[in-house]
Amino acid sequence: MALIEAQSLGKTFGNHRAVDDLSFTVRPGSVTGFLGPNGSGKSTTMRLMLGLDRGDGATTFDGVRFGDLDQPMRHVGALLEAKPFHPTRRARNHLRMLAAPNGIPDRRVDEVVEMVGLTDVARGRPGKFSLGMGQRLGIAAALLGDPHTLILDEPSNGLDPQGITWLRNLLKHLAGQGRAVFVSSHLLQEMALLADELVVIGRGRMLANGPVHDFIAHSGLGDVVVRTPDLSALAPRLESLGATLTASGDSLVVRGATAEQIGDAAQAAGARLHQLTTREATLEEAFLEATGLSEEFRGSHTTNDGGQR
Ligand SMILES: Nc1ncnc2c1ncn2[C@@H]1O[C@H](COP(=O)(O)OP(=O)(O)OP(=O)(O)O)[C@@H](O)[C@H]1O
């Protein structure tokens, strides 16, 4: 069972601190989602973890750094954004060339080709592959060594909805077998379905780390929908709790008070409740809230002096 431990990762390009003091663990048996706005440092972090970029800190896989692993593909499977395959080398041969130095038999090549649904085109040249097919080939390469840990940068890129569902089931299955899966994605709805844990960064720094459910619950963007014929009795009590009330049709959307607090307040006020529905924030809302101050690529504003900021 492999545990990934990243300790104080950091990277500076010129005078830009792209990754700053990031520490986290990825536990076996779980999918850990890696989220951050464009340019926040996700790919750089993954490259640092695999020793592909020089920087600060260290990452260990069950206590061993990637560079010190014997036959690393058997321990860590990685898919990074750049497609490393040769456009004219047939897909199956590409995988065989990766497999041989790691002592991986051809039989395993055929197995992973089938797992990623490329059997029919395995003798074709990746240069002619669609984005999604190329991505499947990259995933096949990551799986070749049957590794305990997977580090995947945007693996759903280019996959159609069916492909995304396939990938979700595959990664959940692999995590269910006790592997550690660390995966970045911009597809937040997908991440909500896929991930157990999250690492959320902005401008290279840690913004949140923990179970997906906690991240959403702490967002403060959840609300409670209330319907009552006795609004005038209930509203002042809710306001005195510090809640924000917004009318929505014949309902009231209450933010800043729990359903329990609202129920108690209604009883104390003698107000009848015809509906009390809790609505959790979505991962997307929680993410936008968490990264709101640190997003690097907001639309630029024109200042009074005409300059861009
Ligand atoms: N080789 C490089 N040289 C200089 N700057 C770089 C280099 N690679 C990345 N950067 C900068 O480091 C920052 C982090 O980039 P990175 O690609 O890690 O972000 P990301 O979160 O993966 O982005 P995206 O979601 O858009 O893929 C960005 O400001 C980027 O411009």
Low-confidence stretches: 297-309
Secondary structure: number of strands: 14
Integer tally of domains:
2
Mean pLDDT across all amino acids: 88
Global geometry = elongated
Which terms would index this structure?
single chain, 309 residues, alpha/beta, Rossmann fold, 2 domains, six-stranded mixed sheet, 14 strands, 32% helix, binds adenosine-5'-triphosphate
Commentary on this structure:
By secondary structure, this protein is an alpha/beta fold. It has two domains: 4-218, 3-Layer(aba) Sandwich (Rossmann fold); 224-282. It contains ten helices and 14 strands. It has helices at 42-49, 91-99, 106-115, 131-143, 161-176, 188-194, 212-217, 231-240, 259-269, 283-291; strands spanning 4-13, 16-26, 30-35, 56-61, 64-65, 76-79, 149-153, 180-184, 197-202, 205-211, 223-227, 244-248, 251-255, 275-279. Strands 6-7-8-3-9-10 form a six-stranded mixed β-sheet, with helices on both faces. Strands 2-1-4-5 form a four-stranded antiparallel β-sheet. The longest helix is centred in the middle third of the chain and has 16 residues, at 161-176. The protein is elongated and about 75 Å long. 39% of the residues are buried. The chain binds adenosine-5'-triphosphate. Adenosine-5'-triphosphate binds at residues 13, 16, 18, 36, 38-44.
